[in-house]
Amino acid sequence: MIMETRYQRHIQLSEVGPNGQKKIKKAKVLVIGAGGLGCPVLQYLTAAGVGTLGIMDHDHVSLSNLQRQILFNENDLGKNKVLRAKKYLKTLNPDVKVLTFPFALTHENAEQYISIFDIIIDGTDNFYTRYLISDFCILLNKVMIYGALYKFEGQVSVFNYNKGPSYRCLFPYPPHVGEIPNCSEVGVLGVVPGIIGVYQATEAIKVILGLGEVLSGKLLCVNLLSHQNTLLDFERNQKEIDQIKKQGKAIPIENQDCFVDFELSLFQLSSEEKIKWIDVREDYELPRVSHLNPLSCSVSLDLLTGSRQKIIAFCQTGTRSRAFVKKMKNKGVGNCFSLIEGAAELNEWVKKNMNYNGTKI
Predict the structure, then answer these.
(1) What is the domain partition of the chain in residue ranges?
(2) 298 close to 277: Cβ distance less than 8 angstroms
(3) Which residue has the higher pLDDT, 188 or 86?
(4) Which CATH fold topology does 263-352 show?
(5) Which of 137, 171, 183, 224 is within CB 3.0–4.6 Å of 142 for a Cys-Cys bond?
């Protein structure tokens, strides 16, 4: 009776009915990425009564997430997204089994976890993980539901559905690192991932029910500034799919997050810790962070090679600081890290930690 009441509006639909709701309950869906796309997907699939939901993400909640990642609030800052998401989702619908994977998808673990589920929803923002998902969905014959964001626009498609095209049929090769910026680099209107995520959740339910026209072989492009939606057709490229199957594993591409071990979050730092901070932004960029000068106004990088202090570089979003750290690692500087958060969040951290004793270069 409780089930009938909770899902009454579904059951009233002749296209769904009691049998359709039972199909939803039996479904197993893995959401990779609990960020801007993952949050609305998780909320609506939980509310819909999907029987088993998996959440995979290694990231922690930061202040800049709250503009669009509506599962979280300020009390969640610094905590793992997957674990905080589960806590909220269980209050939304305790009948849904939520499996948590608080780590990143890799070549080593992809088969183990993707194989458990029927549908894989891509809520990521990097091409390394997206191609990894795509290749293993081909190998394991899993449906992949894709979503992507850019400023005021988004894209949605469904891959590997009823022998339809894959992600590699649409995009055979990944762009070069840095060629296409992600949301942290160019920004995104907060409501855009909500809308695209709802499209992804809708496609997942349609796939589960075998309902309507699934976006297989079609790329939906949504522009929220002009309210123009474009539907592009594309075909299955059997050569691309055969290549993956013949190899029997994902085709390696450059991992844009390959030096994740050299990143640190503000939540991992102590205000008592002696740190040498490096601002790798240009002189005109705001906000200014306490007493720190931009690198362009500071001393030679050669002075860093002999430093015994922990060195942490920062910029607006982490992109330039990661590139800087990579350069320093190549110079043999082992104690150099990139700040996950940006300058604005560091500035707030410095203000809150009045005993902060970090030094500038």
Answers:
(1) 1-247, 263-352
(2) no
(3) 86
(4) Oxidized Rhodanese; domain 1 (3.40.250)
(5) 137
Beta partners for 120? 30, 144
Note whether 127 and 105 are within 8 A (CB). no
Integer angstrom CA distances of residue 141 from 52, 117, 162, 250 = 19, 11, 10, 13
How far, in Å, are 117, 195, 296, 300, 320 from residue 241 at the CA level? Answer: 20, 30, 48, 50, 35
How many separate helices (H) and strands (E) can be counted in the chain?
13, 13
CA-based torsion, 15, 19, 24, 28: positive or negative: negative
In whole angstroms, give the CA distance from residue 230 to residue 214.
15
Task: List, in sequence order, the alpha helices (H) in 171-289.
Answer: 183-186, 191-209, 238-247
User: What tokens appear for 22 in the block?
Assistant: 């039972």
Those residues whose C-beta lies under 8 Å from the C-beta of residue 20, and which sit 6 or more positions away, are 10, 11, 13, 209, 211
Provide mean pLDDT across the span 257-273: 67
Structure tokens that stand for 170 in this block:
């649409």
pLDDT (tens digit, 9 = 90+) per residue, 168-206? 999 988 876 555 666 666 778 999 999 999 999 999 999
* 1-247 placed in CATH 3.40.50.720: yes
